[in-house]
Amino acid sequence: MATPSNKTDIPLQRFPHLYIKVDTPKGRGVFATEIIPAKTVIEVCPVLVLGLDENKKHIEYTSLYHYTYNWPILDDFGKKQVAQAVILGLGSMFNHSNQNQNVVWERDPERLIITYKALRDIPVGEELCISYGSHLTFKDTDDAPDPMDPDEELEQLNSIQID
Ligand SMILES: C[S@@+](CC[C@H](N)C(=O)[O-])C[C@H]1O[C@@H](n2cnc3c(N)ncnc32)[C@H](O)[C@@H]1O
């Protein structure tokens, strides 16, 4: 089990006026019932960092694989590696949007948390979306299909590895 290298207590925050909509084109998604002003902390989420082996041998074969974020670690030899982390709390519920990203997130590897903040004012009724980066392995429902492009029809794996 990874433990934080920074031992100071971590104040938690969550913007209270949120709900999960269960039937969006992206599955479940996070929405607000009140306007969220720019820079508001939406949530501070503790993370569970998975062992490199644990991920490769087990998690990659489970549904959790679609929820983990890349997480920088030092291995037993002090070499930089990219592990996977399960984000506890609402962090795992944010969907991806390229065009309409309205939430930014920041890792704190010393405290093993991620903080999510409003990138701009978010009106009631707009989904809260982060960016998963450029290596999507599922079909992004925000992308309008191009009927002339047969590649659009190619089936893609439904998984993410958030950068
Ligand atoms: C971290 S989960 C987000 C919560 C998820 N929607 C749920 O219902 O549990 C990531 C998964 O949500 C879906 N997803 C997220 N963003 C998407 C997008 N832009 N287009 C299509 N599916 C998306 C994909 O199935 C992806 O593997």
Automatic annotation (TrEMBL):
Membrane-spanning parts: none
Organism domain of life: Eukaryota
GO MF: histone H3K37 methyltransferase activity
Acidic residues bias (residue ranges): 143-155
One Pfam family in the UniProt entry: SET
Coiled-coil ranges (or none): none
Signal peptide per UniProt: none
Domain SET: 16-133
Disordered: annotated segments: 141-163
SMART domains in alphabetical order: SET (SM00317)
Protein name: SET domain-containing protein
Naturally occurring in which organism (per UniProt): Epicoccum nigrum
Taxonomic lineage from the root: Eukaryota, Fungi, Dikarya, Ascomycota, Pezizomycotina
